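As noted in the main text, all predictions were made from sequence alone. Below is one such record, for Glycosyltransferase subfamily 4-like N-terminal domain-containing protein.
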Amino acid sequence: MVSAHDAPEWRATHVQALSDALRTQGHEVTVHLQPGDQQDPQLGRFVDELRAEWEYARPDLVHGHFWRPGLAAVLAAQPVGVPVVQSFHGLDHGRGQRAGVERLVGREAALVLATCEHEMLELAAAGVPRSRISLVPRGVDSELFQPHGEKAGRSELSRVITVVDPLADNGVADLVAALPRLLGVELVVAGTLGAGEADRVERWARRLGVDERVRLLGPVERADLPAWLRGRDVVRVPARGRGRRGVGGDGMAVGRRRGVRARAGDVGRRGVGGDGMRRAGAGDRGRRADRCRDRRRDRCARAAA
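Prediction:
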């Protein structure tokens, strides 16, 4: 496994869980962490260290996670003749350095894993041969995310919760903008927002007069997340969240299926039965408010929960 020392908690947890699962099946797994300083000279030293180790003890397979560790994996493994499996955990949609590196890594890797059909299409559009793209949907830790357990304390307000990713456009401002139309509803934001985003959200909430109904929890330990998901009425799945792509599945696993997703994506193929998940267009604040209100008023779903 090749990941990064400064990887966000969700990716570190994913790599650790995958490594543990492989070890339980009898495989020997070594996790290499790229140093937090990701400047090019540092990357070069990391590649040299990997190549030297793999020349001495050649692994059977290398699995890169995210774009820079993936680049290091490809550069170090190719001279040694070791195949690389790559997981991007979300692609960059710009034209900068990262997008170019992702295209390079995707084309050089022996196999690229996508977590949903939308990501498969993105990879193909980036030039990755379809024959080297494999769909592996993100699973749910059923031992952690289950219906029975503690619930986070709450007031009489109905609760909408969203789990955010500091590397993504989470659309929290749009959710705050919908609150004036959702009387008796509070918004709980779990996770770390991007640089400066928390301040902007708080200012926006004060301007709209809904600041008393907006709670920014900041970082939430994975072990504490099920309690927050159990204690809500609606879970909102971010439009482009990389870190919490499984939050829709996690929310349903705790036994409460009601959710609003901002766009089609990986949640759409989870086999949600009936009317358990509804879609609202990204940026469509009015429709999003209507969807959240529908979820809150859905007495049948409430009774089933």
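The first helix runs from residue 9 to 24. The longest strand covers residues 158-163. These features were considered when defining construct boundaries for the mutagenesis experiments described in Section 2.9.
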